[in-house]
Design goal:
A three-stranded mixed sheet has the order 3-5-4. The protein has one domain. It contains 13 helices and five strands. Helix content is about 55%, strand content about 5%. The chain is mainly α.
């Protein structure tokens, strides 16, 4: 197994000390502690030939989806925690099947237990979820689950299936709306298409993905985390801890609604862990409890 290590050049932190904004375009030109957030703002722009470029299409849909997720809760106002989660997330993503995506990770300031992925490499985790974890391996396991969703294009495929080609063609115009609005020209915008897309995405995240997609993300996520050098049982440990919480806990209700039964998830993970145990025989798997606690002590 690889040893866990940090490369500052890989760190692209979504820092939380941002001014209130209506959309991702507000991040254009913003730098916090030397980190340029413009790539997040520009991900959905300059893609007029979206229909001809599959990955460009994914980035446009992902940027629009990430914008909606950011409207549900603000980013946590703690640049150290944001940087740490990005550091872990980027390393995990580099060990996935899609290392070249412009991966970005952010911590949402919300007591609700949750983690969310959007097409194109956007991953968000709540401060409420971080509070339920005890080690970096557990963080890596949850992030790897979300990375697996992106790798397998679970949300992208669900959005495409529900939206249809006509609506997705309108998504390419979202890139122009912010710049047009800033100059007072909104003639090219399509409010009806925008509203329809927003409602479709909102419904998807409220309802959740198909159970099969979640099981697949569990299994692939465990493999990705192990490949990155972490204890592969990190995700299972988080699930077990969540299973001990009161099932009517207000912070947990949404998580349980959009995911399969926790015991079912753990049962379906068993063959994957048996395989990983054999593959890692004699190897070193990291849990890094102290590093996790130290990183989150700045909250």
């Amino acid at each position: 197994m690889h040893k866990i290590f940090c490369r500052s050049a890989l760190l692209v932190a979504i820092c939380a000390a941002l001014p209130a904004c209506e959309n991702l375009q507000a991040l254009e030109g913003v730098q916090i502690q030397g980190v340029d957030l413009s790539p997040l703002a520009s991900a959905g722009r300059s893609l007029s030939d979206m229909g001809e470029k599959t990955q460009d299409e994914e980035l446009v849909i992902g940027a629009s989806t990430a914008e909606l997720l950011l409207k549900q809760a603000p980013l946590l106002d703690n640049s150290s925690v944001q940087s740490y989660v990005n550091e872990v997330g980027r390393w995990v993503a580099l060990n996935s099947e899609r290392p070249d995506l412009p991966w970005r990770f952010g911590v949402l300031d919300s007591r609700v237990v949750g983690a969310y992925a959007a097409p194109g490499g956007y991953v968000f985790i709540t401060s409420g979820m971080l509070a339920q974890m005890n080690s970096e391996a557990e963080l890596a396991g949850v992030l790897a689950h979300e990375v697996a969703h992106v790798v397998q294009k679970h949300h992208l495929d669900a959005i495409k299936q529900k939206a249809g080609a006509g609506l997705l063609a309108s998504v390419s115009r979202f890139a122009l709306q912010a710049s047009k609005a800033s100059s007072g020209d909104i003639s090219s915008s399509d409010p009806a298409a925008t509203q329809k897309f927003d409602q479709l995405v909102t419904n998807l995240y409220t309802r959740g993905l198909d159970r099969g997609d979640e099981y697949e993300a569990d299994q692939m996520g465990a493999v990705i985390a192990a490949r990155a050098g972490y204890d592969a049982y990190g995700l299972a440990n988080v699930l077990q801890d969540l299973g001990t919480m009161k099932q009517d806990d207000a912070t947990l209700v949404t998580f349980l609604k959009v995911h399969p039964n926790i015991n079912d998830r753990l049962t379906r993970l068993e063959p994957t862990y048996q395989y990983l145990d054999k593959a890692a025989a004699g190897g070193s798997q990291q849990t890094l409890e102290q590093r996790y606690q130290k990183a989150l002590s700045t909250r």
